[in-house]
Design a protein that fits this description.
The chain is an alpha+beta fold and 256 residues long. The protein folds into 2 domains: 3-133, 2-Layer Sandwich (Fructose-1,6-Bisphosphatase, Chain A, domain 1), CATH 3.30.540; 146-253, D-Maltodextrin-Binding Protein, domain 2 (3-Layer(aba) Sandwich), CATH 3.40.190. Helices cover 35% and strands 28% of the residues. The strands form 3 sheets. An 8-stranded mixed β-sheet has the order 4-3-5-6-7-8-9-10, sandwiched between helices. A 5-stranded mixed β-sheet has the order 12-11-13-15-14, sandwiched between helices. Helix 4 (159-169) crosses helix 8 (240-253). The radius of gyration is 17 Å and the shape is globular.
């Protein structure tokens, strides 16, 4: 079975389901402060799950349905990254699918339904957008760069650290963008649309596919000094030079 084609099919069909709910009256509930799940999240995840689990011997970890099956090799899925945008009718959300070998993403698909932008990568085979190869941007200086970020709105105890990083980094870059969907931030960094990205406190399903995309597009991915990317969700990604420079400035801002 061709797993990349299976994951692409799941993402596209999940996107079709998402569009049937978008800007329609939605039922949703609060999972935790500032974290919501809608009926669309559940329906999209169910569609993706039914397709992906036709591949035997691969486990499952979905944001809404939890874990089942093999934990050595498993699908890691965020059915709608950007649920807050989705609920409010902001057309910036994505489906993120990664195939994990332990803590290593070996296949990744990110689909932006409202723009019909499909990003995908397999380890060692490069990264693509709608069938065309993509590369990170050629920028080698922070000056003039466009950096994506997201606020740690679900983990407000991290906001003081975020403010220190923002104050340190912002004078040296061109501008910031805040999309509200980390999967899109990473996909756009892989495609050279953004030069880099950083964020605090994300979940593994937010970043797994995007990490592989950035690496396969020639970029670099880091976490903050003294942290594990899967435990903390603290991530820096972008061109090799930009990502390295952002890491240096973040570590300096946080005193490491």
């Amino acid at each position: 079975m061709n797993l990349i084609n299976l994951a692409i099919d799941a993402a596209l069909k999940g996107g079709q389901v998402a569009k049937t709910y978008f800007r329609k009256p939605l039922e949703y509930r609060q999972k935790s402060p500032d974290d919501f799940v809608s009926e669309a999240d559940v329906a999209v995840e169910q569609t993706i799950r039914e397709i992906l689990l036709t591949a035997e011997g691969i486990g499952w970890h979905g944001e809404e349905t939890g874990e089942s099956g093999d934990r050595a090799k498993y699908w890691l899925v965020d059915p709608i990254d950007g649920t807050a945008n989705f609920i409010r009718g902001v057309p910036i959300y994505a489906i993120s699918i990664a195939l994990m070998d332990g803590n290593v993403p070996t296949l990744g698909v990110i689909y932006f339904p409202e723009r019909e932008e499909l990003f995908y990568a397999e380890m060692g085979k490069g990264a693509y957008m709608n069938g065309k190869p993509i590369k990170v941007s050629g920028r080698t200086k922070l000056e003039g760069s466009i950096i994506a970020t997201g606020f740690p709105f679900r983990k407000k105890h991290l906001f003081d650290d975020y403010t220190r990083v923002f104050t340190t980094l912002y004078p040296y870059i061109g501008d910031l963008r805040r999309m509200g969907a980390a999967a899109i931030d990473l996909a756009y960094s892989a495609a050279g649309i953004f030069d880099g990205f950083f964020e605090f406190g994300l979940s593994p399903w937010d970043i797994a596919a995007g990490i592989l995309l950035v690496k396969e597009a020639g970029g670099s991915v880091y976490t903050f000094a003294g942290s594990d990317i899967w435990d903390t969700g603290n991530i820096i990604a972008g061109t090799p030079v930009i990502a390295s420079d952002i890491k240096h400035m973040i570590d300096m801002a946080l005193g490491d």
